[in-house]
Amino acid sequence: MEYTLNVLNIKEQFYTRRGIYKALNGVDLQLKKGEILGLAGESGCGKTTLGLAIIGLVPRNAAIIEGEVLINGRDLIAPLREYASRNSKKFNFRKSENIIKKLNQQLASIRGSMISMVFQDPMTSLNPVLRIGFQISETLVTHQPEMLAKRKLARSRVTDIDLRDMLELLKNGADEKAIRVFTESKGLQGIEEQVLNIWSRSDLGEAKKEKMIVSLRSTKLGSFERAILNGVKDRRGMGGWMKIPGLSRLPKSILFKEGYRKAVELISTLEVPNPEEVVKMYPHELSGGMRQRIIIAIALANNPELVIMDEPTSALDVTVQAQILELMRHLKQRFNTSFILISHDLSVLSEVCDRIAIMYGGRIVEVAETDMIFKKPLHPYTTMLISAVPTFQTTEIKGISGAVPDMRDPPDGCMFNPRCPYVMEKCKIVNPHLGEVEQDHSVACYLYGD
Amino acid sequence: MNIWAYIIRRLLLLIPTLLGLTLLVFILSHFSGNNILLATYLNPRLTGTARQLLVQKLTAEFHLNQPIYVQYFYWLLQVLEGNWGFTNTPVFSGQVTAAIELFLPNTVVLTVAAAILIWIIGVPLGIYSAVSRDSAADHILRVGSFTLYAMPIYLIGIALIIVLGVYFKVLPFSGVVSPTLVSSFSWYINGISYPTHVILIDALIHGAWGVAFDAFLHFILPALTLALAIVASIIRILRSSMLEVLDQDYIRLARSKGLPERTVNNIHAQKNALLPMITLFGLTVAGLLGGAVVVETIFSYPGIGYWTTQAFLNSDVGGIMASTLLFGLILVAANLVVDVIYAFIDPRIRY
Amino acid sequence: MSKKTSGGTVNTRRWDNIKLSFSVFFANTAAVVGLIIVLVYLADAFIMQIDPGLLGITYANTLVPNFLNPVPTAPSWQHPFGTTYPGVDLYTSTLKAIRIDLFYSFLVVGVGAVVGSVIGVISAAIGGMMDEIVMRITDIFFSIPYLILALAIGFILGRTLMNMSLTLALVWWPIYARYTRSTTLSTKEFTFVEAARASGVSRIKIIFRHILPNSLPPVFIQISLDLGAIMVIFSTLAFIGFITNASVPELGYLTSLGLNYVQIAPWAVIFPGVVITIFALAVNLLGDGLRDVIDPRRRS
């Protein structure tokens, strides 16, 4: 089975002044292509740490002492693991930082393009001194400069007649595919997404849309600019002379301007009103919901294969929450994007996830399809978690007795044993493995065998 | 908040500050009784009946027989008209305004040069220190700036004198120019050069390259001392500011976008780290002015600071009060400029 | 929360905290070195205060010139640091000067910091018109560079050692007033203060039990760091020639004595300057170490 993401036995620790904090204690996870996997658990169980470990954004006091993160067969965190597993006695923060820096360099090409992440707090995730459009455009220029070049070149070559023809097609109910065929036949690749995006916008009247589509042709290119853009497009990126810091300013600024345009399109699909104004604004001028949409736009800009979303809706109200979940469904359907959705809110996960994994004490204790988790929860923790969620039928509020273990000194054996109502002797000695009990339903508990 | 509203508010706040400043100077000069005020405005060269007449005139003019707030008002009038009194020091004797005209240009050149040096040296080093945290270079920078920070200004000057002036005999360390070089020039009379009173600039204006070079050599040690004294704290603060920025969420997001580390540092981090630096600049100016006093004294550099210490050591009331007022005005003006520039740069205030 | 420390009384937890503080502090070698150096200086000051004879010094409060041989001489067995201008032995003078400098610097910081902090806390806690007035007054003090302000005030008060420290205290208190004011203001905003007020605790109790304990720790660190800075400024003023008494043992003044002879006798300016720099360095290291202990963010 081809997995997009394969996490094998990840063990991660943090060195703090008050001791070693064991955040992840052997996590196994598989993600299929086009799947939305929910990651649930209480605060402190390691969900966010796992998400960060997958993308490799660890602080310098973190040590991944064991495990692999395989994306399309490539182990992302190999350097970190190699250093940490060999130097657990003399872990040096400076050396760790150097390795992290090198890792950042290595992973830069896939971060933002193949795998991206949406962080928890939208209020602090955007750079306050840079414009919205810039922050979106950045990721486009870095990973898809040739796409941007193609767009602008297409705009400069498209004629009035072509645009009016396309308008006719759209008015007569043509779909995306038809338009694409049309543009390909005319050799105008790059214009179709611009036209389609304007047409599908819901905040403009039809007359305005017509005007905007027709105005797409009024782009004049100087010959120098045209040469640059062609260079970018053909060489598939900013290679050669354009890498020199001083000289790269001109092509970069041209591409950034095009990036702003694409940014407008991106955020308009996320239901951001007045996108042309918004891209020129600074983050503090927007509300939390808006900012989160921008961040999601940034994460999705390059159509990544895997998106990790860390509590994307916790800071937002329910209506925005619903919109974002709808967007996830749409993207999965259209692009087959895989998602990891981290949340402590099971009800949110139940709405949109295909499978749900329950985490406790830095380990995965149960994984199954969403329906099965709710209909037939196997692990005691899962059962208690579900019954703790109030519904219309609930008459009394049930909590889970006990408290989350101190990860500096975790219990032996199964992490849950101090709080488990079905605890047995062997639970306190050895940790149960995550084993498949039924079709596509795995659990780590001695109640179901070894 | 609208940026113009901010600027206007800031300008309006200026008035009570200026009033407070002048009030403070006035009170200070009044503390030993009327005599100090008189002494300030009494031309020291007058004697006998002319002196007594002047005393009477001044008493009337400043209303010295009336309550203090009246006196303050009339004194303030005099100050605004440009009559700041007399100074009597070995280095200069005469009207305070004349002294200021002579000495201020030199100090301005010195402090501006030091400020430029501080920014050219301090900013890149501070940022580099943070970016390459805990590396060998970082440790050296930290130890170095720590030591510089602990050294008194005069010690830095003395150390530079010993190393560059005595041991290596590279640079001169007294005065502004070697006297023999300038004695024959028409634009240099009695120790004063025209038109700007700054020998370095005047020499360049008049095309006397040899003199200009010599003046430049004399200029290096004082400027370097002043710069080194302050750059240490700039490096430390910039380093911690940058480290704080690098810990922020938006930096993590930038990395998750797959941006190269150079871009993350130069575009995302630097802008945020440097913003608070601009407010620091007000403090830097205060340090520069105070430091100029010491530096000019050590190197016998004819600036406002040198005149101030001479006034102090010779109990010249007029000189001290006038220089206090002058330094205060300069600092207030500098702070205003800094606030306005900051308002223009920080997008959170602008929009 | 964890299995281990769930038992135990409040006292054991406090003892654990103290042990942690000590281990954090002593793990920092630089801070320990700083502490040792500061203690050495303090020891010298105490010995000089109680019985200077122990160090072989008779006149603890003045410099002893030797007009028979006024030119500065190089370090030798009789004069371990050499001599400076009017034949003054640098080693003994330095020992005397340390005590003087330390005493007056402590005085400046003590008076300035205490007075300033009290004013700042009260001003912020009470707020309103008084707060505005205090702000304006501190603004006025800040509008003049501190060195020049010190010269102006010192000129009026008189140019003696005691007056110099008084002057510096006057120049320094606004800094503390502003500093404590801002920490008090931010503590005031914390919700636990609101919570206390909501449960009916009287205002004075709030100030003493909630606001002060949270706003004061950073002030202590600031005080310890300022000791070094004040001593440097103190010596700078003396170097310029603030004091009219020609034989006061003070490190800055000692440096100025040798200034004219810097070409032939560099040791005369180096030794007193280095002694001050080492103290300032030590104080800074110590302060940094204390900050590591007290600031909760840096503990983890």
In short:
With 450 residues, chain A is of the alpha/beta class. Chain A is built from 18 helices and twelve strands. The two termini of chain C are 18 Å apart.
Features of this protein?
heterotrimer; A: alpha/beta; globular; B: 351 residues; mainly alpha; two-stranded antiparallel sheet; 15 helices; 3% strand
Architecture overview:
Chain A has an eight-stranded mixed beta sheet with strand order 6-7-8-3-9-10-12-11, sandwiched between helices. Chain A has a four-stranded antiparallel beta sheet with strand order 2-1-4-5. In chain A, 43% of the residues are buried. Helix content of chain A is 43%, strand content 18%. Chain A has 18 helices and twelve strands. In chain A, helix 15 (318-335) links the parallel strand 7 and strand 8 (338-343). Chain A has helices at residues 47-55, 78-86, 93-107, 122-125, 132-143, 145-157, 160-171, 176-186, 192-199, 206-214, 223-234, 249-269, 275-278, 288-300, 318-335, 346-352, 370-375, 380-388, and strands at 3-16, 19-32, 36-40, 62-71, 74-75, 115-118, 306-310, 338-343, 355-360, 363-369, 435-438, 441-443. Chain B has 15 helices and four strands. Chain B has helices spanning 3-30, 34-41, 48-61, 68-81, 96-131, 136-150, 153-167, 179-182, 199-206, 209-246, 249-256, 261-298, 304-313, 317-345, 347-350, and strands at 86-88, 93-95, 188-189, 192-193. The longest helix of chain B is centred in the middle third of the chain and has 38 residues, at 209-246. Chain B is globular. The mean pLDDT of chain B is 82. In chain C, strand 1 and strand 2 form a beta hairpin. A two-stranded antiparallel ribbon of chain C has the order 1-2.
